[in-house]
């Protein structure tokens, strides 16, 4: 660890200067030799670094979302070229290039924070060995060696012996109890951060190897922190515990306000958004408009939670627009009337499919249509009086069994004979 920290000695002076500046402020409040002054200086260093890394954190979120979107395509490539690892790697790189994603983007905050971490370790190690480093002179070094956090010196480690701990003015029991508690808290915060990412902010509709890897890291990282934590000074444990708590809070904010599509966090967010929009009958912030605009633009590609959100607005008479605004509209709620017609509330009757008729009904309808075409009068309804008696007999047929006019023509047409002179047949060629 000392060898790695020495590689980042070029940044030791800026880190020590920032700590000294914060110490001069907190020293006036809590006293220059107290653990509160030096401990809060380290916490303030973490906060300053993490604020500067917010743009990288935003880039990390976008890269993680892009990787989750590419998981189905990556799985297809793995299955297609499972026996050719070289071709599989080439296709993966081609997919990353076409989509404009980079798997290393999700590690940018950790990579960017590493130099500051090792520089702080180098500074605290110099305090433990009693050597000046950076802008920390002899007076500041003596003040830092006196500073204890709950009885444990800033430069003490869990693995330090009795003699080294006594030289720093503390007992071995206090050092090991404090460092053990801080290591447990550091590992627990790392585990909870990874767990809330996996349980709340992952698209549950897609099952990919990436999710299995994330689950494995959820258990591996806390163990790694516990193993390496016993070799960290108390000041470094303060630094790492603070950055874990910051990451956990930052991630909770992102999951609550900008969740991954298809995740449980999105379902909870859209439920809150639906209640808020229904109450105010409009989208009030720019973020709400951006979310609604993105959902409307998806069209048929909306997931289950997004469709439920749009339907909930429609039921209360609100319509989401393409620009992200919400306006009052007509609630499309089907209502069945007494006469059997289905209407939309406040709208016109809904067109219904005609009922299927039986064969006898279709034949009677065809006969009635033929009678109308021949110029026969329409049958009278039961509401009008008939001038003829009901027991009137049909007219008798003409004598001799002759057909009615038009029967002969019909019979000829049925027999297949043509009217007029026949065309002579041409002689067959031999």
Overall geometry comes to elongated
DSSP helix count?
17
| SS content category | mainly alpha
Rg, Cα atoms, Å: 42 Å
CA distance, first residue to last residue: 112 Å
Strands of the biggest beta sheet: in what spatial order?
Answer: 1-2
- Please give the share of residues in helix: 55-70%
Strand content: under 5%
Which sheet architecture does the biggest sheet show?
2 strands, antiparallel
Give me the strand/helix succession.
Answer: HHHHHHHHEEHHHHHHHEEEEHH
What's the rounded overall pLDDT mean? Answer: 75
Spans where pLDDT lies below 50 across 5 or more residues:
331-350, 371-376, 379-393, 396-416
Strand runs, count: 6
> Based on the structure, what is the oligomeric state of the protein chains?
single chain
Structure, briefly:
The chain has 430 residues and is mostly helical.
Explained architecture:
Helix 2 (12-30) packs across helix 3 (35-52). The termini are far apart. The model is unreliable at 331-350, 371-376, 379-393 and 396-416 (pLDDT under 50). The chain has 430 residues and is mainly α. The protein contains 17 helices and 6 strands. The strands form 3 sheets. It has a two-stranded antiparallel sheet with strand order 1-2. A two-stranded antiparallel sheet has the order 3-4. Strands 5-6 form a two-stranded antiparallel ribbon. The protein has helices at residues 2-7, 12-30, 35-52, 54-69, 71-80, 85-99, 108-129, 138-146, 162-167, 172-200, 209-229, 234-257, 264-280, 286-298, 304-315, 359-373, 407-415, and strands spanning 148-149, 152-153, 318-320, 326-328, 334-336, 342-344. A hairpin with a 5-residue loop joins strand 5 and strand 6 (342-344). It is 61% helix and 4% strand. The longest helix has 29 residues, at 172-200.
